[in-house]
TrEMBL record:
Keywords: Dipeptidase, Hydrolase, Manganese, Metal-binding, Metalloprotease, Protease. Binds 2 manganese ions per subunit. Its EC number is 3.4.13.9. The lineage of its organism: Bacteria, Pseudomonadati, Pseudomonadota, Gammaproteobacteria, Oceanospirillales. It comes from Vreelandella aquamarina. Belongs to the peptidase M24B family. Bacterial-type prolidase subfamily. Its cofactor is Mn(2+). Mn(2+) 2 binds at residues 243, 254, 417. It is an enzyme of class 3 (hydrolase). Splits dipeptides with a prolyl residue in the C-terminal position. This is Xaa-Pro dipeptidase.
Length: 432
């Protein structure tokens, strides 16, 4: 790893140390313990579910798979890392890398699961509900103080130089996976084959992906969170949608691409091109102070123009938005905050912590606050042919070109998604 990244990480940790010291003072606390979390076994089994460490723990250590460990922050002291490293011949215990950032912590290697040492007025955050020591912790500390957690969430909304470098590298690795996925599709692969090609090229195990990859052929491209992989290739190849990511040092890439197949209606390829152009147009409008809700509404206006220009709707673009036609073709939000979590924290709050819920007209929107430098967001316009959403329109008098819609329905839908850093003067596309 480059010396520059190491230095950025040490500066990131130093910045967190200053910010957390201020948080402790704001909430009149002497110490704060952050629990990494742990995986839970399936019922009556010793096989665990998928796991990722608690986000505020990852914010410090940059490792997404640390279990049964604690980070203790105390006033005017170095951070104390209590790392669970049992003697175990069944599993390989967690190991810290030989990297300079480790020296920023006082590291305690623990062969047993511990209760963290706390002093004075204390708080504990993280999922501790199933710990045997939960009751003991509740006697000496405040568990999950809401105001404190909100303040720590807000720290993660804007990214340090180190975090941006990690997100950029996660994107680079994910792009390699997307290129391999497209090549597999050209080779007439099944959904599972596309997934395996993606994992191989992005150099990760399926258990390491930041979210379950969406690999949808044909109609499956219209299932927003499609969760299966067919084992056999379809006889006809209309489309492929790949929504897949990658972690780097705990930070997530979240990229989506849609491809036209050899059997697709001719208009489908033109629609994919139009959606790429709309994505680029929306990114060009990103700048500090831009209201993300307004940008989402601009996406609906752009989508309405595409529906009209490509003959899917024979009325005006304005009426397509006003009558809710675009919402039937595009039911989700334009994007979300991105960082340690794919749908990162604090997107539905204002900087002072007050709630900022999604508007009634766009209930699936995950980000409702104005953009500011250092934020990283996704921009993901889409156009879907989802029968259950379009069915109500068929009983109304809207001038939808149902003949063309039905021809395109075999393609499922289109989503294009890039990861965008908000800069002082505009934006930087991390997915290039």
């Amino acid at each position: 790893m480059s010396a520059t990244l190491y230095q950025q990480q040490r500066e990131h940790i130093a910045s967190l140390q200053r910010a957390y010291q201020q948080c402790l003072a704001n909430h009149q606390l002497d110490s704060l313990a952050i629990y990494s979390g742990h995986a839970r076994n399936h019922f009556a089994d010793d096989h665990a579910t998928s796991f990722q460490s608690y986000g505020h723990f990852i914010h410090w250590v940059g490792m997404a798979d640390v279990q049964h460990s604690w980070l203790v922050i105390q006033s005017n002291q170095r951070p104390q890392l209590y790392l669970y490293t049992p003697a175990d011949f069944w599993h390989l215990p967690t190991q810290l890398p030989e990297e300079p950032w480790v020296a920023e912590f006082d590291v305690h290697l623990c062969s047993d699961k511990i209760t963290p040492p706390l002093s004075g007025r204390a708080a504990v955050i993280g999922d501790v509900t199933e710990l045997e020591s939960a009751a003991q912790l509740a006697n000496v500390a405040t568990l999950q103080p809401e105001a404190l957690v909100r303040e720590l969430d807000e720290l993660r909304m804007t990214k340090s130089a180190y975090e941006i470098a990690c997100l950029r590298e996660a994107n680079r690795l994910a792009v390699a996976g997307h290129q391999a996925a497209n090549a597999a599709f050209i080779g007439a692969a099944a959904e599972l084959d596309v997934q395996l090609a993606y994992l191989a090229a992005s150099r990760q195990r399926e258990s390491e992906v930041p979210y379950q990859n969406i690999i949808g052929l044909n109609e499956h491209a219209g299932v927003l969170h499609y969760q299966h992989y067919d084992l056999s290739a379809p006889k006809q190849r209309y489309s492929l949608l790949v929504d897949a990511g990658r972690r780097f040092r705990g930070y997530c890439a979240d990229i989506t691409r849609t491809y036209t197949g050899p059997d697709a209606p001719s208009e489908f390829g033109a629609l994919i091109t139009a959606m790429h152009s709309l994505k680029d147009e929306l990114i060009a409008h990103i700048a500090p102070g831009v209201d993300f809700v307004a940008l989402h509404e601009k996406m609906h206006q752009g989508l309405a123009d595409i529906l009209v220009a490509h003959g899917l709707y024979n009325g005006s673009a304005e009426s397509a938005v006003e009558a809710g036609i675009t919402r039937a073709f595009y039911p989700h939000g334009l994007g979300h905050s991105l960082g340690i979590q794919v749908h990162d924290v604090a997107g539905l709050r204002q900087p002072d912590g007050t709630p900022s819920p999604a508007p009634n007209a766009h209930p699936a929107l995950r980000l409702t606050r104005p953009l500011q430098p250092g934020m990283v967001v996704t921009i993901e316009p889409g156009l879907y042919f989802i029968p259950m959403l379009l069915a109500p329109l068929r009983n109304q008098s809207h001038p939808v070109n149902w003949t063309l819609v039905d021809q395109l329905a075999v393609c499922g839908g289109i989503r294009i998604e890039d990861n965008i850093l908000v800069t002082d003067s505009g934006s930087d596309n991390l997915t290039q």
